[in-house]
Amino acid sequence: MNNESKAPEPEFIDHQEIEQNIGLLDRTTSWFWWNTVGMSVLLFVALVALCVPHAPESDAPVIVGGLLVVMLISNGYTLHRQHQFKLFRKRLGEHMQVTIQQRMRADKFYGLAILDPLTGLYNRRFGEESLQKEITRAERNNYDLAVIAMDLDYFKEINDQLGHAAGDLVLKEFSRHLRRAIRACDVPIRLGGDEFLIVLPECPKENLHIILSRLKPFEVMINRRKITVGYSRGKAQYQVGDTPQTIIQRADKSLYAEKAARGRSAVVH
Fold it and tell me: Fewer CB near the last or first residue (10 Å), C or N of the chain?
């Protein structure tokens, strides 16, 4: 790719430089305020000197003239500072814009690091870290914690019969249903392939059925063909001494037991 076609990268803006610029902005604003006060005092003195009766040989006109010259010079310098202030404000705005772009890029890179690019769910690494944190929190505060393991039924057959694009569409649709079914505090994770895990903080055992009742089979239209996709689910509740591996193993065991009890379904019409 031709390097000339690439958009220029914004220069890096140090936070210390921004703080220095803000400090300069504060000092410049303060200077304008005190300059205005000083000019007001000088103008008042000049007016008083003009209004007070004085002898013909008095030096009052000279004093007033001197004050007016000082005010004229000061105002000229103020105009110069105002021009500098305008340029500085423009530069500070540019710095802030670069900072915003840097933050947006950092957020983007962070999203790439923790999200599965296909489904938008959290990836395995972030999910395992989140589960470990929730286990630590449950141990420390005696909170309830549950996990749900899920996989799609006959996902391999969908890929083989209809192609990987169809499989990707099924995964995206499932992920959309999953996000709608869980709570805002829950952590939906794609472990890989068609395997998923949901971490449910502060979720007692008796409330798990509410989440499970929302996770129902769904239909997807692919090339005018209707696919009804089901999935198997396994749940596990946190027990004292659990690790991420042990609680996931119990959820997997529950999932396999459900598979054996009811079979799996993926119907293509």
Answer: N
Whether residue 77 has pLDDT greater than 90: no
Q: Which amino acid is at 203?
A: C
- Rounded Cα–Cα distance for residues 50 and 45 (Å): 9
Element (H, E) at 208: helix 208-214
Token representation of residue 78: 């103020």
Distance CA 117, CA 123 (A): 9
Residue 170 confidence (pLDDT): 93
Dist. CA 201–CA 190, nearest whole Å: 17
Given strand 195-201, what is the order of strands in its sheet? 187-192, 195-201, 145-152, 231-237
Q: Which residue has the tokens 């990836």?
A: 123
Confidence of residue 144 (pLDDT cuts 50, 70, 90): very high
Superfamily of domain 124-268: Reverse transcriptase/Diguanylate cyclase domain (3.30.70.270)
Tell me the average pLDDT across 174-203.
Answer: 94
0.85 cut: is pTM over it?
A: no
Given pLDDT bands bounded at 50, 70 and 90, which one contains residue 152?
very high
Residue 227, CA distances (Å) to 19, 45, 253 in order: 58, 90, 27
* Candidates 116, 186, 194, 242; catalytic one: 194
Measured CA to CA, the distance from residue 112 to residue 126 in angstroms comes to: 11
**Dihedrals φ, ψ of 128, to 5°?**
-65, -40
pLDDT tens for 96-121 read 676 666 566 655 555 557 899 999 99
For residues 15-28, one letter each, b for 16 or more C-beta atoms within 10 angstroms of the residue's C-beta and e for the rest, the string is eeeeeebeeeeeeb
194 included as an active-site residue: yes
Domain ranges of the chain: 10-114, 124-268
